[in-house]
Amino acid sequence: MKNKLIHIGYRKAASTFLRDWFFFHPSLHLQPYSQEPDLAEVQSNDYLVFSEAFLLFRGNDRPRTIENLQQFQREKCRELKAKFPTAKILLIARSPEKSIVSEYSEYIKNGGIQTFDSMKNDPLHQAYFLGHYNYNFVIELYTNAFGKESVLVLPMELLQDRPTQFIKELETFLDVPHVEFAHHKRNSSRTPNQLWAFRMISLFVWRMTAVFGKKRKGIYYVYMRYLEKESYTNKKLAIPIKLLLLFKWKKEPVFEVPRALLIELKNQAQCLQTFPYFDSYSNEYFNT
User: Fold this and answer.
1) Is residue 203 part of a domain?
2) Pick from 104, 158, 194, 168: nearest CA to 279
3) Does residue 24 sit within a domain?
4) 44 falls in which pLDDT band (50, 70, 90)?
5) Which residues form the domain of 175?
């Protein structure tokens, strides 16, 4: 394959599906998946770089403000351009509203205990959403660096509605032969009721660990790591979740993103109108 492919994907936006497709397609070679890929190791002409870390730094050494996120994204883009100047760039977008709800689902699946209402109204979380899901900024960054002809942007909704066409677009962009691939959904978000039950279990574990005093956070961290491992299978805590739901008396929670935040996010997605297929999803990305 002439060009390397850099998937600068967003979380919960077809990343698991793409990883499976990269492994499956005989014309493509994917490096072992890593949350923190070492760019120095990605040297083979046939490598496809897959990572979500190109858009989001990890760790708690600095807050995820808009300024810090954009600075990190600039640095990564410059680094990738310097190492792989002829690479092709793949970005899968997802509607802002669904992205936030899906982020919350992932947070709860990994041991989070904050309510959705608390999270969505937290200024720090809002700054993160506005900094991370700024499609105008990220796409301009990579099209300026690599050229628009080397950047493919597709809506995740196309994969959900027309998976065959989604795969065809990838194959055409990469100039690889068509290979039949059975579309399968993995790492799906939990239902609101399941998330409620999951959060109740984690909240119980958090409260019980209080007896360990200063060791509390370390013990709870072990619990979170257990949940993170193969969380895409959605099998963790399956039995206690089912039992809890048998006794649930409240209505299913509704996850509603604040309108003001949604308007700002959609204003930051206007550049997507210049890419194919997004006009079919105007309500999800553009209309306020």
Assistant:
1) no
2) 158
3) yes
4) very low
5) 5-96+123-186+259-285
Question: Is-contact 7 18, C-beta < 8 A?
Answer: yes
| DSSP β-ladder status, 151-155 and 88-93 | parallel
Burial class (CB in 10 A: 0-12, 13-18, 19+), 286: middle
d(CA 2, CA 5): 10
pTM: 0.84
Give the CATH number of the domain where residue 87 resides: 3.40.50.300
For residue 54, what pLDDT is reported? Answer: 79
Radius of gyration of the chain (CA): 20
With CA atoms as reference, report the closest residue to 155 among 116, 83, 98: 98
pLDDT (mean) for 188-217: 90
Q: Which token pair is 254?
A: 């509704």
Q: How many folded domains does the chain comprise?
A: 1
Q: Is residue 127 part of a domain?
A: yes
Lowest-pLDDT range of 63-77, 87-101, 247-261, 267-281: 247-261
